[in-house]
Amino acid sequence: MEIRYTEYVRPISISSSIFENYIRRGWLYVDKSEYAYRLLTMDDDPIFCFISRPRRFGKSLFVSMLEAALKGRTKLFKGLYLGNSDYDFHPYPVIHLDMSDLPFVYGVCNFTAQLNRLIAEQLSAYGIAINEESDPGSNLRNGMKALWQKTGEKIAILIDEYDNPLTSTLSVKEGKEIRECVSELYGYLKPCAEMIHFLFITGITRFSNQSIFSKLNNLRDLTFNPDFSAAFGYTQHELEECFREGIEEAAIANGMSENALVDELRHWYDGYVFSPDAQHVYNPISINSFFDIKSGRMAFDSYWGKTSVSRTIIELARKTEISFTPGELKKIPISSVNNFVAEDFTSAHKMLDSSLYAYLFMAGYLTIDHIEGKYIFLRIPNYEVEGILCDVLAYLYLGRESDRFDDRLVGYLSRCDFESFISEIQDLIRIPSYDMVIGKEKYYQSLIYAVLRKAADIDIRSEVHTASGRADLMIFLKDKLFIIELKIRRDAETALKQIIDKRYWDGYRGLDTYLIGLDIEPENDRKLSYKVQHLESKG
Length: 539
What we know:
The chain is α/β, with parallel strands linked by helices. 39% of the residues lie in helices and 16% in strands. The protein has 22 helices and 13 strands. Residues 1-8 have low confidence and may be disordered.
């Protein structure tokens, strides 16, 4: 069905991160200026702040909004929280460094030249030139001094995606030299503190061996601060208020009630938590893409996954014993999140699982479930991310062969051809190389889930909570239910007996139910045995 918006639905941008464009062109803007107010009116002197959020979560738009406020552009904030507040909009000179625009593929000399160009562009707006032969750190320091002397005002420094040169050069030949260049640049900020009124830094990760953290001991890290937990992403209230007309249109287009549509949006795109006990937020790029007027679709899809899946994830996952299933919690030390070291990511040795899960949290693939003492428990935030991670796992374990299993497996199940289904599973679990671990039940469960999750017209669930325990896998296919219990070095009869004893099917009456017990012998060529029992539907 073609989507036809009413005249009351405001256009939505999914590409621009320039605050002024949203205001001047009448694009839908979810007001986050209350958080700008909290930053700009802190008691600190100077105000030095850092916050980490995943890619495409609105960081650049937020920085652009901060820049407009710091330059005193009052009219842009008419009707917004900051415009209605007591903030004085005193204009400051602003240096805004967007580190996401820098190229890394042509070596350290070109990178240095491009970094100098970025600094020069900012300073030239105030009639100040730099020495292109000098290093970027010296040019930033000298430029700030000249700007301070010329304007008589302290300076606002905004650094967006500060860690992009670090994460993007992990596998680049001259990556170490590039990272050292960036580290030196950030190292100049503390000696220049007397010239700075406001410093705000964003990024995805927190590299503890960077000068930006090791030397700026007055830098406030707001990443877990509950007062800023909803500064990025959309709250439930913001979704239902700001996208009200779009929700009405989408509900009609999808043949759903508005409540059902909101529930489905929540299932797909909500679930991010950035501070313990804080409210959930939606992925903003996914919501914007869903309601984008130009697409005319309003379809549920993996929008964020198409813009942000990084090969870095796959490369890092190769160094760990990674596994995922929905509902599973990953327990890691909180220190793993706060102490990234770039060189750990480039090492040929296996990295700690906790380091990878910490990175996945910062990058938006996991989110906070809860914190206990010195440990943080992480979970997959929503259905969209679950699909992304399943694709990553399937490719990690199976390479290009991952695409040949899903539809055939579903076909065998739909016909209750269990012999062919098990034969296919047997081929599947033998593909991962010996050094990929596969010695634990969790990895087989994760692998089977990841492959089947990719198939169309199937509802597969893992670690399903029932009244008497958790079922490894449940597969819903039309009017059939398949319950799978997996064991390692036991026997299929034991696995089947567990399903029967715990009656995992009790909450799913009315379906034609098949109980499948599986046993794998890792040391015996991963030999797979099975037992099946059919429970006829009672209606």
